[in-house]
Amino acid sequence: MRLRETDTIAAIATALSDAGIGIIRISGPEAFRVVSRIFVRQDGTSPTAEWKSHTIHYGFIEEDGELLDEVLVSWMKGPKSYTAEDTAEINCHGGVVLLKRVLEAVLRAGARLAEPGEFTKRAFLNGRIDLSGAEAVMDLIQAKNSFSLKASVRQLRGSVSREIKSVRAAILYEIAFIESALDDPEHISTEGYPEKLSALTEELLMRLQKLLDSAEDGRLRREGISTVIVGKPNAGKSSLLNLLVGEERAIVTDVAGTTRDTLEEFIQLKGIGLKLMDTAGIRSTEDVVEKIGVERAQRYAREADLILYVADASRPLEEDDFQILELIRDKKVIVLLNKTDLPARLTAQELQEALGSREVPVIATSAKESTGIEEFVQALERMFFSGSIGSDQEVVITSLRHREAIQEAFDSLCQVRKSLELGMPEDFYSIDLMSAYASLGRIIGEEVGDDLVEEIFSKFCMGK
Questions:
Q1: Other Cβ atoms closer than 10 A to 176
Q2: At CA 202, angle to CA 397 and CA 155, rounded to 5?
Q3: In this structure, how many other beta carbons lie within 10 angstroms of the beta carbon of residue 88?
Q4: Which of 175-179, 233-237, 429-433 comes out lowest in average pLDDT?
Q5: Which residue, 391, 436, 383, is CA-closest to 409?
Q6: CA distance 395 to 393
Q7: pTM, 2 dp
Q8: CA 257 – CA 44 distance, rounded (Å)
Q9: Burial of 129 (0-12, 13-18, 19+ CB in 10 A)
Q10: Phi, psi of 282, deg, nearest 5
Q11: How far apart (Å, rounded) are the C-alpha atoms in residues 323 and 249?
Q12: Helices (H) and strands (E) in the chain — how many of each?
């Protein structure tokens, strides 16, 4: 372990804001000595012996005779702590100025300021959690909905790690058998082995495919569905955005082309997260500013997970509508037939005919009367989740890094299957099995370099 990783570190572990309490976390071999230099007990004496682990002590923080705060200090001796090191947490009164002042006293007493994510990094380096567990900590902090929260907690408790380790153990056993058979063919027979390995490979491929199948739904539920609202000018896109958001976020007027730039909002509809983007009305225009907005709308529509095409029920289909229909031809689309409170000049049947043979949900809505939203949410659930992933599913892949590693392992096992079908020698199986084993090892941190570790933990907040 490098010298910097054996320092005693400290940071504010709670948000910097006026609050009831704030916590300063200290971790490392000198944690007790650092605290003892600035902590004074109620009787005015300093700690003279190391406290019993997992105890809380009442007293005051003082520096150079100056009283800074009345505090509680939690003491946890390693390895039974978050970092698996000696750890103290000073529970102060909340407040930005106060917390910074106490932290400065801690640093002058012998600690150094922790880097972002360094406490969790130490937990990983000390073997208390693996890399997938460390990433779950960040996911837990950043959870935007109940699904993300539950998935992060399960991952923190080892759901992903257990499955990955189980698959790796099965692969490693076969690698060891092949290597042993190659080294000692007189005593270890490979007769009938290809059939046995073939059956195991199919089982492992099924397990990895199940994880891959959970990845896209997991990503959408964790990050939210990237959703772009498109339509011709004055179709009611901004009114719809305001209705979904629940407040007046977009300017709504009768003037065509009011929206010229994109407006983004993150909302939740019955636990489904949507990263909503309202865009400029798509039409042919000579206005330079509006033209830029239209080009952006077209670009965002091509990149989105979902298109909400807002059609105006009070106007027949026009050239601008057909331009939009061409743009969204190969995308996931929900059509909202808006302004159904006005006399109808466009029907759902006409829209379906314009969409061709595609089965696209067409939902009658009125942003003015707040109707159609329930039907929209139901269509959303059917389109994206369709019962394939539940909130109680044990293992869900929500990380792109994990998905890529699993895909690489899956591809390597496909190569094993191909070698078996072609009757290749056993050492061919071993090469691809080892590749799958290494790919899965990257998920739990057993096959990663320092650069990746640094990159992952640099994304953490200070104090975590």
A1: 11
A2: 20
A3: 27
A4: 233-237
A5: 436
A6: 6
A7: 0.67
A8: 72
A9: buried
A10: -85, 120
A11: 27
A12: 15, 13
Q: Which two tokens stand for residue 196?
A: 């046995």
Which element (helix H / strand E) includes 227?
Answer: strand 225-230
Look at 265-269, 407-411, 414-418 and tell me which has the smallest mean pLDDT: 265-269
Long-range contacts of 183-192 (CB under 8 A, 24+ apart): 190/426
Q: Contact 285/236 with Cβ under 8 angstroms?
A: no
Neighbours of 270 (CB within 10 A): 10
Contact (Cβ atoms closer than 8 angstroms) between residue 440 and residue 409: yes
How many CB atoms neighbour CB 301 within 10 A?
A: 21
Asked if the model's pLDDT at residue 57 lies above 60, the reply is yes
Q: What is the pLDDT of residues 209-222, one digit of tens each?
A: 999 988 877 777 77
Please, which residues have CB within 8 angstroms of residue 187's CB and are 6 or more apart in sequence? Answer: none
Strand pairing class (21-27; 87-93): antiparallel
Where is 159: in which H helix or E strand? Answer: helix 159-183
Integer Cα distance of 96 and 68 in angstroms = 13
Long-range contacts of 209-215 (CB under 8 A, 24+ apart): 209/410, 210/395, 211/163, 211/395, 211/397, 211/406, 212/397, 212/403, 212/406, 212/407, 212/410, 213/388, 214/389, 214/393, 214/395, 214/396, 214/397, 215/397, 215/398, 215/402, 215/403, 215/406
Residues 382-397 as b or e (16 or more Cβ within 10 Å = b): ebbeeeebeeebebbb
Reference 364, options 353, 352, 355; nearest CA is 352
Strands of 39-41's sheet in order across: 39-41, 55-63, 66-76, 87-93, 21-27, 9-12, 112-113
Please say whether the beta carbons of 270 and 221 come within 8 A: no
Q: How confident is the model at residue 61 (pLDDT cuts 50, 70, 90)?
A: very high
Q: Confirm if 60 and 139 have CB atoms less than 8 A apart.
A: no
pLDDT digits (tens, 9 = 90+) for 433-458: 999 999 999 998 886 666 666 766 77
Which conformational region is residue 236 in: left (phi greater than 0), alpha (psi within -120 to 50 degrees), or beta?
A: left
Q: Which of 203, 253, 240, 212 is nearest to 376 (CA)?
A: 240
Residue 277 · residue 228 · CB < 8 Å: yes
Per-residue confidence (pLDDT) for residue 18, from 0 to 100 = 79
